[in-house]
Each structure stands twice: as structure tokens, then as C-alpha cells.
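Work package 3, deliverable 3.1, input record:
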Amino acid sequence: MGILGRRSLLRGLAVAAVGAVAAPLASSRLATASPTAAGTPGRLRRWSMVIDLRKCDGCQSIGKPPQCTEACIQGHFAPEPMEWIQVYEAPLAEQAGTQFIPTPCQHCQNAPCVNVCPVGATFATPEGTVLIDQQRCIGCRLCMEACMYDRRFFNWGSPAQPPQSLFMDYSPEHQTPAIRGTVMKCDFCPDMARAGRLPYCAQGCPRGAIYYGDLEEDLATNGSEVVKMSRFLTENNGYRLKEDLGTEPRVHYIPGHGELAGRKPTTTGRKPTEWPWQKTIGGAIPWQR
Amino acid sequence: MAEVAYVPPAWRERLETRGLAPLRSTGARYWAWIGFLVLVIAWAVYQYATQLNNGLIVTGMRDRISWGVYIISFVFFIGISHAGTLLSAILRVTKARWQMSVTRMAEFITVVALMVGALFPLIDMGRVDRVLGLLQYGRWQSPLMWDIFAITTYLTGSTLYLYLPIIPDFALARDRLGPTAPRWRRVFYEVAALGWRGTPEQRKLLDRAMTTMMIVIIPVAVSVHTVVSWIFAMTLRVAFNSTVFGPFFVAGAIFSGIAAIIILMAVLRKLLHLEEWITRTQFLYLGYMLAAFTLIMAYFNLQELVVSGYKMESGQTFHFAELMTGPFAPAYIYYWIGGMVIPGLIMLYPRTRTIAGITVAAVLVLVAMWIERFLIVVPGFRVPLMAYDARNYFPTLVEWSILAGAVALFMLIISVFAKVFPIISIWEVVEHRGPEPGAPAPADVRRVRPEVRPGFAPVATAAALESEGVRP
């Protein structure tokens, strides 16, 4: 099966699922408060992520751009300069060096972006995942002002998209094809999760630093190892970004600076992100962030 | 009307002639001016078309500074719309009378600034073709919906409030323009006057309607600029995360509104020869208010600086450094000196407290208030949220052109209005004319006009009396 076939199939499933679950609640935040009313039988997934910063060296050791970002760009056809999961290099305290922080959308449970959207184009699914419906987004960018994690990307120009994207069924869970004048961001790949696969970024990470899982089952995996999420976080001093803002992110971090990958914090810099798929098609006009 | 006080017929004749003059004849200079404005607007429309064609990539905005000139100008225009509310509602409520000859202009500013200002969020939208989605999917949780609700309410209310006091003047135009006037004008004034004959019953109705609107419009105006500030203050960004933004924006709105009306007064007074009715007094009193608001604005700014600056949260350190010593320092210093200190000083010294001086102060303030909005939006967005280098924002030709087009559109609508609507509220100026010093005062003067105080005696009369040989 080619890439198109598999995606279309997944998307078909996803559209059906989203249609059944999300449509009646698309614009309503109240929906998240009463998941059982959503008509989904049984327990509801609460997709979450744990990123072990001890293992993240920004792909310094392999001499490539961060592979989580690359996999995400390749999988979502994210237009340049969008890095839905971006590996920031942040200074450690007292100039002790730097750490790499892969940062996807934090999928806040008290999401400022969802609150301010005037048309409900940004919404939280009953599972707690924050998605954007680019077919409804009016491009006012209030959500970009509200997001405190710099995790939202606007299609300022005409986003380059590969020809096959035209045949893809659009879904907020897999935002292809990208639409000019609308906002995009990490969608947490819930369609892949439902099909039993890890998000692109977790698949792409050569160190297994990204664990993806379900808070409801309290399990997460990086593809080779399964952890009990609550214990994993407690034992390793897990934290969330800007926790004091009260946004309640679903993305957790384990503090570190790539020590398990053998990185010294004083070794700074990483390879810049690339958009290789975008070079394969002509006429793309990228912009700067 | 005439029973209120003795009104010299010659004075009244002059007022009505002057007030209706723009409706009677139009010179070549007017058409040249209109042509110029239309050119500027056409250029802006062309630039907007390139934006529609290529997307917002043609602007200087990007992900990290995702709002720019458009939202700045939106806040600015909505701000100056408060001119009308101040003059014709707040001052009317306090029974001031000196502003009667300029209320109409102020109400023009309100309505036109709202119409122009409301365009900016549309221009700023990435998908303006989906604007009806706001009706279809609108959510009241979003500050943007509050804006839409407040601004449409305010526009409706202030349009009504513009129209009500014009009715008697429409009737005057209907009765006075005569058969030589173009047909469309005769029909228009006939219809627009709503059969006004000035009967006691009609006057009572009008009075009641105006009183209602005058009171209703004040909280609406306050709410408008409060919710405009809330599109910023409802976010967690450190520069916007402030509880003082609502009143701060309302004060700034009135401040810039005063400046706008002073400038429009100065221009129309010269162009339409209204020197007799718009005298130094109107400039002086509005100038005093401008001076008072320089202090109020300075107070709000100090409040922000001191409370945030004392604690110096990390993002705030960056923000203040950028404003005071960084790339925004020249604009920030101009905002303080040109927007607050110099206008205050101009009003402080009697020698500079002239019509020209006050107009200069108003121009300084108006420019400073656009810059102030720039200094709120751009440096506020510039504070990095994550470990990245702060981004720059330089507006492009497209954005400047559209701003110029909006200013031109503002002037164009005012210019057209000035040709269709009597630019002075003639009947109110007549009505609120003070008792003549030498004239036999009717017995009921005190009952009809108990609010006249010496300091606020109608000023429109001074020059008129002199020219009639009566010493005021």
C-alpha cells in the first residue's frame, strides 16, 4: 500500500469517528466536561505525552536536524516554516549550558486558544485533544495571541502542498491539505493512535525520548518500552511547561539535558530544521516565522 | 424656539445661511479634494486586492507578531469614535452648553470612525470570505464576539443619536433651500425631516428620544473600548496581562477623541467660515479637557510602569527594556513627550493657549495615540514566549497603503456628510443662545434655561453681538 492508500484509509476511519463524535460538540467546550454524554461507549482515551529530556540531545549525536520535527513535517506535509513539534534550545540556570525541549502543542485542558476562538474552529475533542478545523477557521489569529507556547502557525501565504494532498480527505485530525489564511498546529495524531500507531514524532525519535499514551489507562510507550505514566512521572520529577499559568497541558516533561544520550550541556547548537518534501514540488513560497 | 430668549434676527439669519451654505453650493476645490481622497482609497483597494490574491504574506505580520497595523488602527479608530459620545452625551448630561456648535461634528466623527474602524478586523482576517461564520458559529466565549456585539450596538446607537438632533435641521434645509436646490436634495430633506414642524408635541418627543439616547450611549461607549482592550487583556501575555486595560483604553479613547474633534473643528471652521460660532472658547474648553486627559493618561501609564516594574517579572523586564532603551525607545519617548508633556504645557501657558496652539497640541496627541496603540500591540507580541529570538515587525507598503486608504475614507465620508447634513446643529445653537444682556428678558428665561452659569454662558454670541454693535 502506498502512502496515499494507507492515509486515505486511516482518514476515512478518522472522518467517520470525528463525524460521529465531534460534530455535535464541535464548538462546545462543555463537551469535554461530560465525556460520557458524547455517545462513545466505554472509557474515553485521554491522549498524553511524556518527553524525557534526559534522552534528547537535539539529534546532535547523529548530526541531523531533530528527527521528531522531521518526521512530523514529512508525515503532515507541514509547510515551511512550520515546526509543529519544535526543538527549542533553552539555557539552563546559571549559564550551565543548554537543554533541548521538543515542544508540540501542549493540548491544554484549560486551553486559552479554545476559549478565545470566535467560531469554534479550535475545539477540544471529548478525549481532550485540541484540534483546529481549517475549514471553519476565519483567520483572526486571536488564538495565536492567546497561546503561551508559541505553538500556532498561520498560513500567511499559499502553503505548498504535494499533489497527492489534493486527493486526501481533509480532517482536523490530519490537517491536509493546508489552507491559506488559516491556523495550524500539532494535532496529536489521534487518528494514528486509534489505528494503533504512535505519532510521527514519537516514531521519528531515534532515542525513544517521546512517550505517547493514554492517561485513562495510565500507560505510555515510546515504541520499545511501556511505562506506567503516573509512576514514570513521579519517580522522575515530571513537570509541565509554564505550569503556573493554569493551562493544564497534556504534555509532560522529565527534566534533563540529554545526559542519557551522552550529551554535555555545554555542547550547544543543533542542525536547522529542513522541509525536504517541500523541495520536491515547485513554486513553493515559504515565509519566516 | 424663538420664545426661549431674544434672538437677533440678523444673527439667526447669518447662522442659518452659514450652516446651510455647504448644502447650497460646491466649489471646484471640494471636488479636487474628493478626487484626491478617491485616488488614495483606490490605491488602498488595489493593495488590498494584492493581499486577497497572495494572502497576508504581503504584510509584515508573521506568527510571532501576528497582529500589526490593522489591529492598531482598529483600536485607534474605535478610540476616536469616543469624541461624539463625550461632546454630545457626557457634556449634555452635565448641562454644558458651550459645545452645541460642534456636537454635530463630533457625532460625525463617532459614526464615521466606527464605520472605518470596523473595517480593520475584516481586512486583518485571513479568510474574510468566511466572515459569515461569525454569525453561523459565533461563540459568546470569545472576546471577538464581544467586540462585534459592542461595536454594532454602538454604531447603531450613535447613528440614531446622530440622526435625532438633525431632524429639525433637515426640516430647516427643507424649508430654506428653495426650489433652486437639486431635486434629490429636496426629496432627501423632505423625507429625512420626517414631517418635522416643530410642534410642541414633536419637540417633546424629540427631547425625550435625545435624552434617552444621551444616557444610553454613555455606558455603550465605555463598554466598547473596554471590550476592545479585552482582546488583549484576556490573554496571558505578560504585557497584556493587566486588569487596568479596560479603563486605560477608555481614557485613551476619549483622549484621542478630543484631539480628533479639535482638529476637525479647526479645519471646518476655516473651510466653511464658521469663525462666528466656533470660537476660541470651544478650543479652550476642549483644550482644557485634553490637558486633563494628559494627566489621566500619564497616571495610567505610571500605574502600569510602577506596579509591573517594581516586581519585574522576567517577561516584563524584557518588555520595559525594549520600550525604554530598545528599538521602541524613540516612539516611546515621543509618546510621553509629544503625547502628554508638550500638549499639557501648551495648555499651561496662556501665550500658547491659542486656537493654533491647541490645534497643534491635538495633532501631537492624535499621532501619539496611534503610536501608543502600536507600543501596546507590537512590543507586547515581541516578548518571546519560548526560547527563541524576539522577532521584528516592519509594516509593509500594503499595510501603510491600507492605513492611508482608511484615513482617506474617514475624511471622504466626513466631507460628503458635510455637504449633505448641516454641519452645525443650527436649532440647538439657536435654542441655547444666552439671554441678551441688553434685550428684555422674557419672564420664563430662568425656567427654561436654569442651567446657564456665567462661566458657561453661550459663547457663540460674543462675536455676533459685537458685529451688531451690542457690547457683550
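The first helix of chain B runs from residue 9 to 24.
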